């Protein structure tokens, strides 16, 4: 799970940022000032930084961050009420990777943070495999023992996501956020239905799963394939 640090002094805004980023499946640490932030950022994947902060401004902190050899490449999304072009340019030239003007929508916030994380992450493998199951992400194609699976787009997205994170358990809520998106209005039953459909495609027995396992009280995971596993 990606770790995003938020530095925002307005409590209400900070709570909104935390809520929507956590709802999108991200781990969030929220601070109200830059004091002590460098230590927290050592384990972060991205920073959402307000321009106007008490004490040290966000812009000043950003310049200091870019001089730090360990943190200079950390992706930073700058938040501000300043809409003038010259001020946006100043923020970007000071080292911000992206810029969001208040007020903003939750969907745009999440989309911009995810874009920063994607750009900063190593290239993900385009072909994923787990025993006889092979998923070609670029071609949007899945095969079981060489047989092509006739999946819907959402079935494919769910299968690819679980395969990419094989071994990790995801709750229904997390899967809705990560696969369907934060703005999806359906319920958790949608995830159950798609898992059932995928099991039918994979000929996967829920009682002795070779691939899709239900972890009671927690959610679902893709079981790493082992020799002799039942499929």
TrEMBL record:
Positions of the OmpR/PhoB-type domain: 125-224
Biological processes, Gene Ontology terms: regulation of DNA-templated transcription
Every Response regulatory domain range: 3-117
GO molecular function: phosphorelay response regulator activity; transcription cis-regulatory region binding
SUPFAM superfamilies recorded: C-terminal effector domain of the bipartite response regulators, CheY-like
Name of the protein in its database record: DNA-binding response regulator
Keyword tags: Activator, DNA-binding, Phosphoprotein, Transcription, Transcription regulation, Two-component regulatory system
DNA-binding region: 125-224
Annotated GO CC locations: cytosol; protein-DNA complex
Residue positions, PTM 4-aspartylphosphate: 50
């Amino acid at each position: 799970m990606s770790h995003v640090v938020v530095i925002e002094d307005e409590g209400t805004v900070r709570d909104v940022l935390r809520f929507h980023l956590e709802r999108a499946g991200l781990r969030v640490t929220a601070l109200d000032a830059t004091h002590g932030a460098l230590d927290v950022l050592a384990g972060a994947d991205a920073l959402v930084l307000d321009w106007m902060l008490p004490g040290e401004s966000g812009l000043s902190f950003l310049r200091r961050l870019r001089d730090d050899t360990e943190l200079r490449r950390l992706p930073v999304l700058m938040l501000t009420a300043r809409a003038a072009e010259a001020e946006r340019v100043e923020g970007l030239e000071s080292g911000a990777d992206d810029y969001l003007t208040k007020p903003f929508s939750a969907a745009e916030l999440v989309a911009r943070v995810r874009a920063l994380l994607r750009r900063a992450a190593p290239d993900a493998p385009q072909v994923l495999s787990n025993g006889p199951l092979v998923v070609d992400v670029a071609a949007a194609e899945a095969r079981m023992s060489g047989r092509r699976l006739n999946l819907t787009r959402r079935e494919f997205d769910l299968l690819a996501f679980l395969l990419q994170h094989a071994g990790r358990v995801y709750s229904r809520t997390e899967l809705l956020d990560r696969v369907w998106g934060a703005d999806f209005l359906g319920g958790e039953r949608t995830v159950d239905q798609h898992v059932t459909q995928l099991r039918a495609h994979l000929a996967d027995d829920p009682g002795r799963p070779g691939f899709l396992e239900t972890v009671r009280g927690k959610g679902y995971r893709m079981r790493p394939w082992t020799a002799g596993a039942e499929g």
